[in-house]
């Protein structure tokens, strides 16, 4: 077989320099037809930059790309589409004013193949695409009301129906349910059988070992060694290659919190949106895990507690006194209760603003002078101190937050939460899309906050995460609390108990 036939995509000596940052430094790898090739590396290693270069979002500073043996200049996304390169980026790329079929057939519309004239054909194409990924929606439905998991699956369906020769998937399972993820992995395997080549990025290493044939490790923008066959590696070895040293998972021992006072208590609270009553207690300095699959109703419950969705029945007590929180502003200003959203890009940060402005907006009461002026000196001092204490990796505090890695963005969200001197923190999916090393750092941070006396609720779909750090775990399913478990810190026995509660 000639080289032209063997490799569908070849990246040669790709370098990308952003102002002040060398995101990629001489990266090369090749991918064969019908191969699943994983790209792994820590947050900020340069994986998404590579995906953006292959899909024509921006060009490389140096280096070349060959598609099917021929050198190509992929100067824009339409060119990538023409070459048979489909992509699902980390950020959602759907148009709210388009219905499902129009979103799925977007490239047909924008390249003039179907100028929305043949709606029936579009609907049929959308139905076939959705069936392929197990989405049971109508093609004429709007997309605004869809959950982020469904939107993600829609983008995957769209990329899959483009008849791509190469499909780029950048963290496709970060915000979808386990069932959806299973379906996605099955579809990836099926596409591979059909001869499609797939570049797959994920921080979930189990997935990598389940589907990848070959793996390229990127560290600080550089290739680490040659492309490796997945079967020659194990998880520990892969982590070592990613982080550049032996990696040891920190363990947090069980604590006796029986004498600590209850800080937050919900007694049978429910709302219009979520009428099933639920109760729990949170002690001072406790880490309480809320486990459940995506869609189990945990975020909705948190929204009731922080005053976004009004509680219609039951009572909420803070330090023993019944409270009625009317807004999130009241939650954090008056009750020192802060919430860190799972959706850091859309709800957690002003992405086009720098780090110090993101922190300053929350710390206004600390940085405003008596005359109402902002003290930028004070604002920068506060931001610098969080940059230091949370080990936020950025050139300086004036860097645009959009350009930072997911892990560093998450730390800025935590810094913003800390600005209100919280007594209670609810952190929703703290490590989605975060690499194994930074995940460890964030767990340590949460543990340290709890040792300082802050009570933390961690909402997570990652059982390993909760078994690692939580003192107790509450299990959610279908908007109900199905169980409450002391954490033995033994993963096997906790999984059995959690699954037992879910199935009850
Ligand atoms: N538009 C940009 N302007 C400036 N710097 C950027 C830009 N995009 C990315 N970077 C920087 O390039 C480097 C690589 O980022 P990239 O997003 O490619 O990493 P990643 O491996 O995909 O990380 P993650 O796993 O968090 O998605 C980082 O230092 C990032 O801050």
Automatic annotation (TrEMBL):
Q: What topology in the membrane does the UniProt record assign?
A: Peripheral membrane protein
Q: Does the keyword Transmembrane helix apply?
A: no
What would be one Gene Ontology cellular-component term for the protein? plasma membrane
Q: What PROSITE patterns does its record include?
A: ABC_TRANSPORTER_1 (PS00211), ABC_TRANSPORTER_2 (PS50893)
Q: Which domain of life is it from?
A: Bacteria
Q: What's a Gene Ontology MF term here?
A: ATP hydrolysis activity
What InterPro entries does the record tag this protein with? AAA+_ATPase, ABC_carbohydrate_import_ATPase, ABC_transporter-like_ATP-bd, ABC_transporter-like_CS, P-loop_NTPase
Under Pfam families, the record lists: ABC_tran
Q: What sequence ranges are listed for the domain ABC transporter?
A: 9-245, 252-503
Report the locations given in the UniProt record: Cell membrane
Q: Mind listing the UniProt keywords for this protein, alphabetically?
A: ATP-binding, Cell membrane, Membrane, Nucleotide-binding, Repeat, Translocase, Transport
List, alphabetically, the PANTHER family matched: CARBOHYDRATE TRANSPORT ATP-BINDING PROTEIN MG119-RELATED, GALACTOFURANOSE TRANSPORTER ATP-BINDING PROTEIN YTFR
For this entry, the protein name equals Sugar ABC transporter ATP-binding protein
User: What is the native source organism of this protein?
Assistant: Lachnotalea glycerini
């Amino acid at each position: 077989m000639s080289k032209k036939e063997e490799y569908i995509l070849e990246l040669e000596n790709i370098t990308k320099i952003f102002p002040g940052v060398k995101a990629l430094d001489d990266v090369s790898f090749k991918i064969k037809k019908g191969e699943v090739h994983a790209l792994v590396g820590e947050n900020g290693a340069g994986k998404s930059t590579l995906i953006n270069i292959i899909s024509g979002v921006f060009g490389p500073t140096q280096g070349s790309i060959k598609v099917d043996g021929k050198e190509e200049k992929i100067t824009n996304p339409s060119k990538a589409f023409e070459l048979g390169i489909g992509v699902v980026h980390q950020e959602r790329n759907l148009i709210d004013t388009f219905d499902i079929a129009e979103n799925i057939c977007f490239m047909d519309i924008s390249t003039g193949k179907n100028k929305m004239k043949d709606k029936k054909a579009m609907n049929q194409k959308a139905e076939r695409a959705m069936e392929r990924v197990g989405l049971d929606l109508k093609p004429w439905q709007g997309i605004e009301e869809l959950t982020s998991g469904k939107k993600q699956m829609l983008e995957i369906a769209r990329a899959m129906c483009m008849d791509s020769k190469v499909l780029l998937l950048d963290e496709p399972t970060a915000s979808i349910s386990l069932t959806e993820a299973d379906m996605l992995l099955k579809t990836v395997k099926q596409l591979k059988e059909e001869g499609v080549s797939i570049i797959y990025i994920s921080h979930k290493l189990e997935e990598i070992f389940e589907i990848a044939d070959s793996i390229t490790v990127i560290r600080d923008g550089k290739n680490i060694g040659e492309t490796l066959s997945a079967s020659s590696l194990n998880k520990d070895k892969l982590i070592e290659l990613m982080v550049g040293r032996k990696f040891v998972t920190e363990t947090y021992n069980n604590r006796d919190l029986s004498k600590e006072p209850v800080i937050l208590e919900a007694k049978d609270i429910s709302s219009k949106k979520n009428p099933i009553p639920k109760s729990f207690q949170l002690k001072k300095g406790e880490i309480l895990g809320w486990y459940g699959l995506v869609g189990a109703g945990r975020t909705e419950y948190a929204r009731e507690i922080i005053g976004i969705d009004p509680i219609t029945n039951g009572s909420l007590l803070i330090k023993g006194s019944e409270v009625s929180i009317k807004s999130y502003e009241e939650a954090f200003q008056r009750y020192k209760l802060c919430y860190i959203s799972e959706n850091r890009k859309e709800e957690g940060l002003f992405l086009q603003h720098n780090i110090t402005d993101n922190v300053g907006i929350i710390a206004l009461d600390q940085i405003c002078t008596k005359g109402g002026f902002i003290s930028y000196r004070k604002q920068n001092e506060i931001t610098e101190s969080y940059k230091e204490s949370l080990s936020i990796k950025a050139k300086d505090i004036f860097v645009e937050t959009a350009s930072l890695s997911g892990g560093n963005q998450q730390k800025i969200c935590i810094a913003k939460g800390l600005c209100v001197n919280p007594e209670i923190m609810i952190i929703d999916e703290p490590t989605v899309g975060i690499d194994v090393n930074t995940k460890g750092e964030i767990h340590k941070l949460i543990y340290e906050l709890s040792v300082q006396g802050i009570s933390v609720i961690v909402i997570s779909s990652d059982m390993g995460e909760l078994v690692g750090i939580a003192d107790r775990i509450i299990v959610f399913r279908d908007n109900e609390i199905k169980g409450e478990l002391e954490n033995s810190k033994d993963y096997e026995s906790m999984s059995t108990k959690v699954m037992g509660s879910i199935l009850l």
